[in-house]
Specification:
Chain A: One of its GO terms (biological process) is protein localization to plasma membrane. Chain A: GO terms for molecular function: protease binding. The complex is a heterodimer of chains A (545) and B (66). Chain A is mainly alpha-helical and 545 residues long. Chain A is built from twelve helices and eight strands. A three-stranded antiparallel β-sheet of chain A has the order 3-2-5, with helices on one face. Chain A has a three-stranded antiparallel β-sheet with strand order 6-7-8. A two-stranded antiparallel sheet of chain A has the order 1-4. In chain A, helix 6 runs parallel beside helix 12 and helix 9 crosses helix 10. Chain B has a single domain, classed as Nucleic acid-binding proteins (OB fold (Dihydrolipoamide Acetyltransferase, E2P), Beta Barrel). Chain B has a five-stranded mixed β-barrel with strand order 1-2-3-5-4. In chain B, strand 1 and strand 2 form a beta hairpin. Classes of the chains: A mainly alpha (545), B mainly beta (66).
Chain lengths: 545, 66
């Protein structure tokens, strides 16, 4: 029972103690300060006799009823500001800003704030707004618009300079001043921006134009390149087409060309065949015609030559024989003549004197006779001339008779002239009689073709002796002379004529046999050559034939 | 507070109210800062030493390594 009472009392006492402690113990939270008044305290940093103590961040024992405990919030506060201000340049602005502040954390600031705002903590913003509106005016008045907009350092500096000490009095700290919005009725800010905006717009337009130009250039270049490429392509195509056409044309012509070439080859070969045939023909002709003809000609020629040589040898042998015989005769005659001459000289000298005397006498007689004869001859000649003239006129139409008559009349003269050749030989001894004379005559006439010359001489001598009418007699002379001599020297002339005729025969015989076959083939060859070129191979044979 | 190092977050100079961040009370707080020597200038980011603290939130600073 007692224990129960004791326990109950103890429990009650404990409960009471706890409740009392609970009542007396107060704790300051981190964002608040406890302002305890009603007892004598000392607080760090505060002068004696302040009458209250400040507790932050810990618990403290408070005597209820004796001491009063108030809380001061140390939280952040803010105040909106809407202020009409004028800047340093006198430009009116409507500034909308926010100021963020709090109670200072040191005991002095807390004490200052506690004294001013302890019961008016709800209205702290309004108070600060009112205070700060004036400050903001002064702040803005110390700045230009450009500073306000751009220079935050200047703004905060001005804020501190203007309101720092003021806020110290209130125990507040300005954490930040933010200007949300500046309304600009005069359009200063817009105008401020205008040059930049214009410049920016200009730059933008320039850049756009430049870009446009570049793009257009690029496009045009691309188009030009395209056109160029198209042109190149078309040129190339045209070139290839031309090559194709050329190749096709060439191919088309190749057939006829090859045919023509083949035909040409055929013609060439045919021509060659024809040439060969012609050559064979020619060779055959040579073998068949010319060679035999040549052989025959050669045979004939050789025979003729042999004959001629035989005759010549015979003639030469005869001539030699005759010559030798003549030489033998001559030596014999010469020795005989020399012997005779000795005798004759002796006789001659004796006879000469006699003869001279008789000669002189005879000369006198002869001169007288001659003069008389000359007279007679002249008279006779004149008479004969008259007679001849009369005869010529009478026998002009009958020349043959005249010639015959004249010849008949002149025969003695001719014979005399012929004998005149031996006239120079004043003494001639013929040892073999009539044969010797004829032989001598023949020799004289045949010496180096002098026969005819001698006859001419004879006739000339006669001509000079005859005087007029020599022209007709000279023309007829040789005929008669030849006839006369021909009769006298028939043997020698016949032989000589035969020899000449033989050699002439040879000469003439040489020509035709050689010329005939020789001229034959050359004349036939061009005909053979020409024909095959114009006509087919079959025809040249016919042409050659 | 005095003798602590701080970092300049707002230029300290003549005619200006600077700002210095100083580590204090387990955190870092911003203080209004003035140069201890007149005419001195500390750009943002410079390290300074607090030579004087005037409560509640004003400090005078000097060059930390000078």
């Amino acid at each position: 029972m007692v224990i129960g009472i004791v326990a109950g009392v103890l429990l009650a006492a404990v409960i009471i103690v706890v409740a009392l402690f609970k009542l007396m113990w107060r704790v300051a939270e981190p964002n608040e300060a406890l302002i305890i008044s009603g007892s004598k305290h000392r607080t760090d940093g505060l002068e004696e006799g302040m009458g209250f103590r400040i507790v932050t961040g810990r618990g403290t024992l408070v005597l209820p009823g004796v001491q009063a405990v108030r809380k001061l919030s140390l939280d952040l506060n803010e105040a909106d500001l809407n202020v009409d201000c004028v800047t340093k340049q006198g430009i009116p602005l409507k500034v909308h800003g926010v100021v963020i502040f709090k109670v200072g954390d040191d005991f002095v600031s807390i004490a200052n704030a506690a004294r001013r705002f302890l019961d008016q903590q709800k209205f702290m913003g309004d108070r600060v707004h009112n205070v700060f509106a004036g400050h903001l005016r002064s702040i803005v008045g110390g700045l230009t618009v450009e500073d306000m907009i751009r220079d935050r350092e200047r703004l905060t500096g001005e804020t501190r300079a203007a309101s720092g000490t003021e806020m110290e009095k209130l125990g507040l700290i300005i954490d930040s001043l933010q200007i949300h919005e500046i309304q600009d009725p005069t359009g200063y800010i817009k105008n401020l921006a205008a040059p930049h905006a214009a410049a920016v717009q200009r730059d933008a337009r320039i850049a756009e134009a430049e870009a446009d130009r570049l793009a257009t250039e690029a496009e045009q270049q691309a188009k030009a390149r395209m056109s160029q490429a198209q042109r190149d392509s078309e040129i190339l195509q045209a070139g290839y087409q031309a090559e194709r056409d050329s190749a096709a044309a060439k191919a088309r012509q190749a057939g006829p060309l090859a045919q023509a070439a083949a035909q040409q080859e055929v013609v060439v070969q045919e021509t060659r065949v024809a040439e060969l045939a012609a050559r064979r023909r020619e060779q055959q002709l040579q073998a068949d015609v010319r060679k035999p003809a040549d052989a025959a000609a050669y045979e004939k020629r050789t025979l003729a030559e042999a004959e001629r040589d035989a005759r010549i040898s015979a003639a030469q042998a005869k001539a030699r024989e005759t010559e030798l015989a003549a030489a033998a005769e001559a030596t014999r005659v010469k020795t005989a003549a020399a012997a005779e001459a000795e005798a004759t000289t002796a006789r001659g000298t004796a006879a000469a004197t006699a003869t001279r005397a008789t000669g002189e006498a005879e000369a006198e007689a002869a001169r007288a006779k001659g003069l008389a004869a000359a007279e007679a001859s002249r008279a006779q000649g004149l008479a004969e001339a008259e007679a001849i003239k009369a005869r010529a006129s009478a026998l002009a139409e009958n020349q043959e008779a005249v010639v015959a008559q004249q010849l008949a009349e002149q025969w003695p003269e001719i014979v005399r002239a012929g004998a005149q050749a031996f006239g120079s030989v004043d003494h001639m001894v013929l040892l073999n009689g009539a044969d010797g004379v004829s032989d001598l005559f023949a020799k004289a006439l045949t010496m180096g073709g002098t026969g005819l010359g001698l006859a001419r001489q004879l006739l000339a001598a006669m001509g000079t002796a005859d005087g007029p009418g020599a022209g007709t007699r000279a023309g007829t002379g040789p005929v008669a002379g030849a006839g006369g001599i021909g009769a006298g020297t028939g043997d020698a002339g016949g032989r000589d004529g035969g020899g000449r005729a033989g050699s002439g025969g040879h000469g003439r015989g040489d020509g035709p046999p050689a010329g005939g076959p020789a001229a034959g083939p050359p004349r036939a060859a061009p005909r053979v050559e020409r024909v095959p070129v114009e006509e087919d191979g079959g025809i040249p044979g016919a042409g050659a034939r | 507070m005095v003798g602590r190092l701080g970092r300049v977050t707002g230029t300290v100079g003549p005619g200006l109210v600077g700002e210095v961040m100083v580590r204090v009370r387990g955190g870092a707080e911003a203080f209004l800062a003035y140069a201890s020597e007149p005419g001195e200038r500390f750009e943002r980011g410079a390290v300074v030493v607090v030579v004087e603290h005037l409560p509640p939130r004003t400090v005078y600073v000097a060059a930390a390594y000078g």
